[in-house]
Every structure is written in C-alpha cells, then in structure tokens.
Amino acid sequence: MASSTSKKSRQLSQERIYDALMTSRTADEITLAFKDGRIVTGALVFNHLKGTGRLINVEEEMSMDFAVDEIRDVRG
To answer: Could you give the domains of the chain?
Structure first.
C-alpha cells in the first residue's frame, strides 16, 4: 500500500490543512492549491466548525467558496 507521501504532487493531510488554515486566518494573503489544479491567492475567511471557507482577492475582484476536502496545499 503506497502512502500519501509517495504521490508526485505535494498533498497535506486533512488535519494539517485545518491547522494551516487556522494559523493563516490572520495573514494578509495566503495561497491555496486545490486538488483540481487551481492555485488561488487572497485573504482568508475560514469556518473551522463547518470545514468551509472563502478566499477573497480584492485586486482581481474575485471571491470563491471552498471546502477543506478540496484543498491540496496551503501556503502563507
């Protein structure tokens, strides 16, 4: 059985994603890499109880909702 660390692309565990999102809540800007290949940067609004959030990029006039299970990586 192959472990998740043997995957070609970096993918954090659900627990580490939650931790990264919780610590990034006060950052001015973070970058989220999604499992479908999208990479989006913006300010974070995160509801840890629901496991959902919103990323807001004011400069690009864009906001998007997401669920934690859609995320592959978090960079602050």
So the answer is: 11-75 (2.30.30.100)
Residue 49 in 3-state DSSP?
A: coil
What distance in Å separates the CA atoms of residue 35 and residue 26, rounded to the nearest whole number? 24
Query: Which among 40, 42, 43, 65 is positioned nearest to 52, based on CA atoms?
Result: 65
State both tokens at 1. 């059985």
The answer to whether the CB of 53 falls within 8 A of the CB of 45 is: yes
Q: Do 68 and 13 form a contact (C-beta atoms < 8 A)?
A: no
What integer is the mean pLDDT of 46-66? 96
Q: Which residue has the higher pLDDT, 4 or 21?
A: 21
Start-to-end C-alpha separation, the chain: 32
* pLDDT of 47: 95
Predicted TM-score of the model (pTM): 0.81
